Design the sequence.
């Protein structure tokens, strides 16, 4: 499943960001998904929840922000957004000369982390 490999990649990235910064627990992973990316948010959430078990992200939540598909019409020079997952033509003048400006995003916006206990390196020896 497509979403499973994406969820796996998101988890790996979030875990390495967390560890690189010296934290031991992931609380929230916020991502941005464009409607034209072909990723189904429900499937991604399901895959994330299945994969996070046994990792430092086991108690975390995946928060998804959906980005609408937006374009710029080269004929009437207007910006527009569409409700679906792709652009057929400009909604104002029906021109099919347009530039897709957003909707293909698949980005991690933020990883919120925390610490469970005092880190080993801070303990007295
Ligand atoms: Zn137009």
Sequence:
């Amino acid at each position: 499943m497509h979403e499973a490999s994406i969820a796996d990649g998101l988890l790996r990235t979030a875990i390495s960001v967390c560890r690189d910064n010296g934290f031991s627990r992931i609380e929230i992973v916020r991502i941005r998904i464009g409607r034209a990316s072909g990723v189904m948010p429900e499937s991604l959430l399901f895959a994330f929840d299945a994969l996070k078990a046994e990792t430092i992200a086991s108690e975390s939540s995946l928060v998804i922000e959906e980005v609408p598909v937006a374009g710029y019409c080269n004929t009437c020079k207007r910006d527009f957004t569409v409700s679906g997952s792709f652009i057929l033509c400009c909604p104002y003048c029906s021109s099919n000369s347009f530039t897709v400006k957003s909707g293909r995003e698949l980005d991690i916006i933020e990883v919120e982390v925390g610490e469970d206990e005092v880190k080993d390196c801070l303990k007295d020896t």
Summary: The pocket of zinc ion is lined by residues 73, 75-76, 78, 90, 92-93, 95 (CB under 6 Å). The beta strands are 25-34, 61-67, 69-73, 79-82, 98-102, 106-114. The first strand starts at residue 25 and ends at 34.
